[in-house]
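Two proteins were folded this term; both appear here.
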Amino acid sequence: MSRALAFLILLLAAACGGDISKMPPGEQRIGSAYSFTTSLEWSHVGSSPQNRTIDGPALGLLQTWGGLKSGDVLIEKQGRRMPAFRSGFGALEVAEMVTDTIEAIIPGADVETTDFRPVAFGSRDGFRFQIRFVRKGLPIRGIVAGAIHDGRLDLLLFSAPAEHYFDLRAAEIDRIIASVKAPA
C-alpha cells in the first residue's frame, strides 16, 4: 500500500473530528451503549464513528457505533445517500447495510460476507460475521459483531489487510468481542 494512501486515510480520520490519542489497555466505553476491554494499547483516531488503531488506520481499524436508531447511517458521505439502519432490521439486514456502506465508500469493493453466526454481545443476543473485499488492489478482511436491542444497533467492525495485519490482530478482536458488556 502506498504511503500516500496511508497518509490520506490518516488525514481523513483527523478531519472527522479526532485527535490521535493513546488509550492504555483496559475498559473502553462506547457512550452508554456498551463497553469492552482491550489487552493492548490502541490509538483513538476520529470520533464518529469511534475509530481505534494499533498499527495505523490503513493497517487495521476498529470502528464502533453505539445506540444507532432508525435512520442513522454508519458513515456520512457528503453528496451521497448512504444505507441507513431501520429499527425493524434483523442481523441479516445489518450485514447488508454494512456491505452496502463499504461498497458506497469504496467503488468496486464487492464485499463478501462469510462465517455468519450468533454470538453473545454482552448480555444480549448478537451476531458476528466476516467480510472480505478489495481496496485499491489490496485484499481486506474484517470482523463485524453487534446486537440489536430496543430498536437500536450496537456494532463494531475491524478491518485490516488480509495479508499479515488481519491475522496479527484477530485474537485481540476476538478478546474484545468476548469482553463486551452491555446493560440488560
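Next, the second protein.
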Amino acid sequence: MFGLFFFLGNATDMNQKLIAFNLSQRRTNLPPVRTGDVVRVTRKIKEGAKERLQVFEGMIIAKKGGQSASPTITVRKVSFGVGVEIIFPLNSPQVEKIDFVKRTKAGRSKIYYVRHKSAKVLSRKLKEIPAKGMVPEKPSAKKATSQPKTTKKTEAETSEPKTTSKN
C-alpha cells in the first residue's frame, strides 16, 4: 500500500518532466493556428533523388495533440469536386512552413461537419473574422496595362440612334 502512494507522488513530477520535454521539442516558427483557419501548408516531397515543395491550401477542421511533442492538424480542401484531407504533424521536418490565409469563426474545436456541407451553407455558417496579430497573405498584384479602361456607353450617349429593321 505504501508503494502505491509513493508511485502516485512521483507521477506528478514525471508528468511535469514529460510536459517540459515535449515543449522543448516543438518548433517555434509556426503561426498560432486554430480550427476554422484557412492555411497554406508547404511540405517537402521526395521523388527519387529529387526534392520539391508542394503547397496544400485548405481549412483546418481539427487540431489534436495539444501538449504532446507531435501535435497534428487536419487540413481539408475540395479539389475537382472531391474532398481531400491531409493530416500534418506540425513538428515534422517535412512541413516547410504554414502560411495563414484567413480566419473564420468556428463554434467547435472539431468541425467534421464541413465534410457533408456545401460551400454555400458553409459560407453562411463560418463567418470570416479579422485575426489579431495575423497578417493574411495578399494575392499578387496583376501587372497594370498601359491602356485606359473603356466604359460602355448607353444608347442615349451615342450620337447614332439605334435602328431596328422589321422584315
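DSSP finds two helices and six strands in the chain. The first helix runs from residue 2 to 24. These notes refer to the second protein only.
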